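Quick one, tokens below:
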């Protein structure tokens, strides 16, 4: 362990599985399941800087470290799709598995409900997508689970009837409007609040100021985003030659903050409190808040849709509970614990619309 205490996430712990997800022997609640990611303290020496750089290069699905042999990419893709079929193609099987259970929907934001764009402040969601999410929320408990700060993601989604888990699940709030009576406040029983990292707030503010003053002026294109309980250092618009200096600068700032850890998303370094909380924990918290604490009962069908490494924690929770379906949004083969795939936000929208139609048909048949 270094005195800096920066933690590197082991994304290689992710494994494939097919639908329905097999149960593991130990549930994730309380920690210790066999699929838990291995968060290891690392010495930030030259070798580790090198592996971070490799990981930064791999953080965009379009970026290949090596060109594939002719035909190899197709074979790899076919093999991957066989193991992670399209949630649209397998929709009927999914609907059959969900029959008689309470469906609950969990949606990541960036790359899932909005396409990835260069400027994080412009990652808006289309009105069509908003209507699709609104339709789902009118029928099923629905949550947005995002790395963004909760207020920011709410300003993009603008649907008060949803649950919001911002800052990678470290800031959870229940609906502030009833999904079926738009504009009417929800009753107090639906108002959930969970902020497991609240004591870190002053430190996060301090580190945010330090990162803005040290990183942005010296690394052209770098952008630091304050997500309240986590900080995003974006390098999507940074020349690749400056990625190592950028990483060194972030590392230098973190040297004085042993309680923080560094993780990676899509062309972004993320600074977070070193607590055992992630999107998987947020998913478990929300399921409990919705009355589905018991992982052994087959009464709920959670559907989690996400595109990023951070969503893998939630996919692993579903697999460990043997409940519902994890859906990875990606058109490229990736290591994942999700069962299904969708290619892009347009397919996510189609999937959400289908969920609404199937549920409406079921209501008609039952009446
Ligand atoms: O959990 P998410 O809702 O997926 O949020 C993860 C991060 O998303 C945003 O960054 C990503 O999207 C940007 C806009 O498309 C893109 O420019 C950036 O390269 C991506 O990493 C957001 O800005 C971050 O704060 C979130 O942590």
């Amino acid at each position: 362990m270094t005195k800096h205490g920066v933690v590197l996430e082991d994304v290689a712990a992710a494994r494939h599985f097919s639908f329905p997800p097999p149960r593991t022997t130990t549930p994730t609640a309380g920690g210790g399941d066999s699929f838990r990611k291995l968060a290891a303290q690392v010495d930030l020496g030259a070798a580790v800087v090198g592996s971070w750089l490799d990981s930064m290069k791999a953080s965009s699905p379009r970026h290949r470290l090596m060109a594939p042999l002719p035909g190899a990419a197709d074979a790899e893709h076919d093999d991957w799709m066989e193991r992670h079929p399209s949630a649209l193609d397998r929709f009927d099987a999914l609907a059959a598995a969900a029959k008689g259970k309470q469906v609950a929907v969990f949606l990541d934001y960036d790359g899932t409900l909005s396409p990835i764009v260069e400027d994080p402040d412009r990652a808006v969601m289309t009105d069509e997508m908003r209507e699709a999410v609104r339709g789902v929320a009118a029928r099923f408990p629905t949550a947005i689970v995002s790395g963004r700060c909760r207020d920011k993601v709410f300003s993009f989604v603008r649907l008060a009837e949803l649950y919001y888990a911002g800052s990678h699940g470290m800031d959870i709030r229940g609906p502030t409007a009833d999904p079926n009576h738009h504009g009417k406040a929800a009753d107090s029983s639906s108002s959930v609040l969970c902020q497991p990292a609240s004591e870190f707030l002053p430190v996060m503010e301090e580190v945010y100021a330090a990162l803005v003053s040290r990183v942005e002026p010296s690394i052209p294109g770098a952008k630091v985003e304050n997500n309240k309980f986590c900080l995003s250092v974006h390098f999507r618009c940074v020349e690749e030659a400056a990625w190592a200096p950028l990483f060194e600068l972030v590392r230098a700032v973190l040297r004085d903050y042993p309680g923080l850890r560094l993780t990676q998303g899509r062309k972004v370094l993320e600074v977070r409190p070193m607590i055992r909380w992630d999107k998987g924990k947020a998913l478990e918290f929300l399921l409990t808040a919705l009355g589905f604490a018991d992982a052994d009962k087959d009464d709920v069908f959670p559907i989690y849709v996400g595109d990023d490494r951070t969503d893998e924690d939630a996919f692993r929770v579903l697999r460990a509970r043997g409940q519902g379906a994890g859906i990875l949004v990606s058109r490229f083969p990736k290591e994942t614990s999700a069962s299904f795939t969708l290619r892009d936000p347009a397919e996510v929208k189609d999937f959400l619309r289908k969920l609404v139609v199937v549920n409406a048909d079921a209501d008609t048949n039952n009446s």
